[in-house]
Amino acid sequence: MTSLKPSQLISYLNQLVTSNLPISTMVWGPPGIGKSSIVAQVAQESAMQFIDLRLSQLAPTDLRGLPVPVPPAKNETAGTSTWYPPEFLPREGKGILFLDELNMAPPAMQGVAQQLILDRRVGSYVVPDGWFLWAAGNRKEDRASVFEMPAPLANRFLHLSVEADFDSFKSHALERGFSEQVIAFLGYRPTLLHKLDHKTPSWPSPRTWEMASRLHQANLPVDAAVGEGVAAEFRAYLAVYNDLPDLDAIVAGKGGKIAFPKEASSRWATTTGLTVRSQKPPEVLAVFQWLIASASEEWVQLYAADVVNQFQRRKQLANLAKVVMKDPAIQKYLTHYSQLINQ
What we know:
This protein is of the alpha/beta class. It has helices at residues 6-18, 35-45, 60-64, 107-119, 151-154, 166-176, 180-188, 206-217, 223-226, 228-237, 247-251, 264-277, 281-294, 297-313, 317-324, 328-333, 338-341; strands at 2-4, 25-28, 49-54, 66-70, 80-84, 95-100, 121-122, 125-126, 131-137, 158-162. Helix content is 47%, strand content 13%. A six-stranded parallel sheet has the order 1-10-2-9-6-3, with helices on one face. Helix 1 crosses helix 2 (35-45) and helix 13 packs across helix 15. The radius of gyration is 25 Å and the shape is elongated.
């Protein structure tokens, strides 16, 4: 089975859409990894409709529809029945019909879904052209109460596996305005991005870290989202913020006498904080100049990757290039991105 990072999965699914390949696709991954969010993002980026069906919460008749008797025609002795499909199934346009929690659905429900996937129809309902049929499910090893997928159904899918990846999470978190403390902590302790714990209902995953970010921004403890042990580590990490350099002064171009921190935990917090604060090209220029003068190459490259991605998402790379590419020292660190930012 092909295993992908979230960013790679998004790229793969986008390619299926742009190439107009309506091949049924199954996405496997542990709970909380963000499978449904990834599919929703692909639909949004492609300006397509998105219908998310949680099959584990449906009964077979919910998907197949209800039989309705048809009055017998004249000179006929018996009537017939027709199936009225549910209103949530698409009738027109283009989009993604997403069958989530497919292998958590009982066998009877999977049987109805199998007809939909194999034949693109169920009962009298036919999936319109222009709609992609994708599904997702958890793996057996995640102990997520899954049912065995019938071989004929499994054989009709492309099978993709997605794993937790900090760089993909960081890109998403910066775009969505997550707490910079959460991003910096996970940069320092990336193994805590996803750590399934069967002994407690609260454990860290990309989904629960998003919750934790919102809790932290509201000055609430994050224990309920990521569990007590991980929350304690996060609170201990926050102590580094008592001794960080003046980030606002650095962004403003006044960091000439400010030293780069020596501890790795503080370096993550500093670099993340500067990335979050770099909203305009002159600010990026000031941060680059400070990092080049005071930090090692790995931290300059880390900042470069994140800030280029941010400006690319905002479609402001051209404005950034006009300012920073005039500095020969910065050009050295942006060689990898030169083709991208000069488009």
